[in-house]
Amino acid sequence: MIYNFQSQTLNVNPVELAQKRLKFHQEKGLNSPLSIFEVANLMDTIIFKGSHSNSEKQNLIQVCFN
To answer: In whole angstroms, what is the distance from residue 14 CA to residue 17 CA?
Structure first.
């Protein structure tokens, strides 16, 4: 029996996710669906958790599909 495995690695680093969402917000401009509170929360994630990310290992999840 032969199995074909496909794997995908997902990055769950909250700082990188916040940066991506803020970049999307900047590109959308006035048409962005994010509220000012969501943007402030994302900026807090980058500023306050970003300084601790160097000492922690990056969280990675690997998912295999059959």
So the answer is: 5
